[in-house]
């Protein structure tokens, strides 16, 4: 049985689907999706697509339902809205990146999306789609993510749905307009060619499936795949949530324009026997800066599939969780209620959106937190959120360059295990290889390792973030689009928050300075070092309940310092290095004194010291109490 599948359910019989054929169709969809992504990865040119793998493919049926579930994807809705299916022809490729014309499927302009229809007997039967984050699509700064943008017009070229290829013939005029607006025209052209060609290949592969088994049979399998997902999530996941209403909120910390403040994202979760209602009422008004996300389109279809992977944490075992895909089958189980227009999730055109990850990635944590309140903490603590850091300038030959990287961070501790170190929120994405970047850009990577003590203390520790040191060989400019530089990844059920994101330029030198999370053009002199430390995940459970052997191991491995072993875990060590050992008597005494010093009432969530800086001195929010 392939990953992501479950045992045959009564739903399969309703569609008259042979279970073996269902496995074949489901496996073919997964194979085609992977083949498309592999082709893009091997034929694209930009570091963000080829090396960091910040792109996704997806397969949808003619009803616009997402069939594959290994990762998130954009939507076909805007293409079908503007181009009736009966007007499409083999070899057509559609393109869009307009945030406000994407029905919520595209979050910011650097995410370029191509869609190719699949045909059987002359009619559209499915779609193969790919979208990815490209180096530059214009706008007022390199990378098309200006941190101080106040309108979407500053963020780059907006393209509503267009036909980019007409029956196999590229629209050279449209391609010329796009590349002319980009600071990296060659890599943009190569990436688009890779994505269009890969999706056309995927369309042919999927068409073979219809030729082999017939349209009626294959479409019956599509229905069975989605119904199976619906039934599985209803039976195995939603049943774990007690009926009732639960409320929690979390925050973005800055928007690049106003001074740092708490930009609230709130979820009121109402569980009924058959579904969950996610109500975003209480979310802050739209920001002046670019952290807004257009979530209230197509009844929240994109957000439903974006948030649904969090529900998998309620599976009986981690192994079962890994088997569960998220496709259109989850949509009937989730209802969404959005606030009025003019909030972070319902922005009014032309509000800027390039840093919308501050909101939609925070929403993953908000859903996890509100579920933790419902199930007595049986959810992970908060995990890293995506951030972009990079440098740009001119190399020794005077050629302009842009190096931008998506460095991961730590995931949250879980009720059964520590969090993972240096994970990446975008599935299958990765940091840029040192050998590649040093050969292409004018800097040296002097260190790339784990950031000690960055994981939140807990009975199960949060995962660690990266520590990376880049020494510039020529003058350049540093850029960053990152949050969690003030607020931390929260801990839960006694677990403590992880360390926040931090960038220091010229550490220990005469020009040492710490950067804010949003930076467009900080000058960096040749010879200066940029030290990047990414976020650690939150801890789960009381750190004074952590096994002393686990703390000793972490100290020996360099993940936790000796000072933190005592200060955070109450563990007293003797000896040095491999000869270090736990002083059990002193440890028991220290832990007893630390427990006695605690306040009578402690919140269920720990947000770290940064929260008090933005809340007017409050240590926690009212919703943090059970």
TrEMBL record:
Q: Name one Pfam family in it.
A: Hydantoinase_B
**PANTHER family, alphabetically?**
5-OXOPROLINASE RELATED, HYPOTHETICAL 5-OXOPROLINASE (EUROFUNG)-RELATED
Domain (Hydantoinase B/oxoprolinase) ranges: 18-543
| Listed name of the protein | N-methylhydantoinase
Q: Which GO terms describe its biological process?
A: glutathione metabolic process
Signal peptide bounds: none
What Gene Ontology molecular function terms does this protein carry? 5-oxoprolinase (ATP-hydrolyzing) activity
Coiled coil regions in record:
none
Q: Which is one Gene Ontology cellular component term of this protein?
A: cytosol
């Amino acid at each position: 049985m392939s990953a992501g599948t479950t045992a045959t359910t009564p739903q399969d019989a309703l569609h008259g689907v042979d279970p073996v054929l269902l496995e074949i169709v489901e496996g073919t969809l997964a194979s085609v999706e992977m083949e498309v992504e592999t082709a893009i990865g091997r034929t694209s040119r930009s570091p963000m697509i080829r090396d960091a793998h910040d792109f996704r493919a997806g397969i949808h049926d003619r009803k616009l339902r997402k069939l594959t579930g290994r990762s998130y994807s954009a939507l076909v809705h805007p293409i079908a809205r503007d181009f009736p299916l009966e007007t499409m022809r083999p070899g057509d490729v559609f393109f869009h990146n307009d945030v406000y014309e994407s029905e919520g499927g595209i979050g910011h302009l650097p995410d370029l999306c191509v869609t190719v229809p699949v045909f059987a007997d002359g009619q559209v039967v499915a779609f193969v789609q790919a979208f990815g984050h490209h180096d530059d699509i214009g706008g007022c700064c390199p990378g098309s993510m200006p941190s101080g943008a106040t309108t979407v017009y500053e963020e780059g070229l907006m393209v509503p749905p267009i036909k980019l290829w007409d029956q196999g013939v590229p629209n050279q005029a449209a391609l010329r307009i796009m590349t002319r607006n980009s600071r990296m025209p060659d890599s943009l052209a190569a990436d688009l060619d890779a994505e269009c060609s890969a999706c056309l290949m995927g369309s042919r592969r999927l068409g073979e499936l219809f030729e082999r088994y017939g349209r009626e049979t294959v479409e019956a399998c599509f229905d069975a795949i989605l119904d199976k997902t619906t039934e599985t999530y209803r039976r195995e996941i939603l049943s774990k949530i007690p009926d009732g209403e639960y409320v929690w909120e979390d925050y973005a910390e800055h928007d690049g324009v106003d001074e740092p403040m708490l930009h609230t994202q709130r979820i009121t979760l109402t569980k009924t026997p058959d579904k969950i209602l996610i109500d975003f009422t209480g979310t802050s008004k739209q920001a002046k800066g670019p952290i807004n996300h257009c979530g209230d389109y197509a009844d929240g279809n994109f957000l439903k599939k974006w948030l649904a992977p969090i529900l998998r944490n309620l599976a009986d075992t981690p192994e079962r969780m890994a088997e569960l895909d998220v496709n259109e089958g989850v949509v009937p189980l989730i209802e969404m209620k959005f606030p009025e227009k003019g909030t972070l999730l319902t922005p009014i055109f032309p509000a800027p959106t390039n840093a919308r990850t501050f909101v939609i990635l925070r929403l993953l944590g908000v859903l996890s937190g509100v579920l933790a309140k419902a199930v007595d903490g049986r959810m992970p603590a908060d995990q890293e959120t995506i951030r972009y850091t990079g440098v740009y300038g001119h190399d020794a030959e005077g050629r302009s360059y842009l190096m931008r990287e998506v460095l991961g961070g730590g995931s949250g501790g879980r009720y059964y295990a520590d969090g993972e170190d240096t994970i990446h929120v975008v599935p299958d994405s990765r940091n840029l290889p040192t050998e590649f970047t040093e050969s292409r850009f004018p800097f040296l990577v002097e260190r790339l390792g784990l950031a000690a003590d960055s994981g939140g203390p807990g009975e199960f520790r949060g995962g660690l973030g990266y520590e990376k040191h880049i020494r510039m060989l020529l003058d350049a400019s540093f850029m960053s689009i990152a949050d969690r530089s003030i607020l931390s990844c929260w801990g839960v059920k006694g677990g403590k928050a992880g360390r926040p994101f931090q960038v220091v330029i010229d550490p220990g030198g005469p020009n040492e300075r710490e950067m804010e999370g949003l930076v467009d053009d900080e000058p960096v002199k040749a010879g200066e070092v940029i030290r990047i430390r990414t976020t650690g995940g939150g801890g789960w459970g009381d750190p004074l309940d952590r096994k002393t052997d686990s703390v000793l191991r972490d100290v020996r491995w360099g993940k936790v310092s000796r000072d933190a072993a005592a200060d955070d875990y109450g563990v007293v060590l003797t000896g040095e290095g491999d000869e270090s050992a736990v002083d059990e008597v002193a440890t028991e005494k220290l832990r007893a004194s630390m427990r006695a010093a605690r306040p009578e009432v402690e919140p269920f969530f720990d947000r770290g010291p940064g929260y008090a800086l933005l809340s007017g001195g409050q240590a926690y929010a009212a919703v943090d109490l059970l």
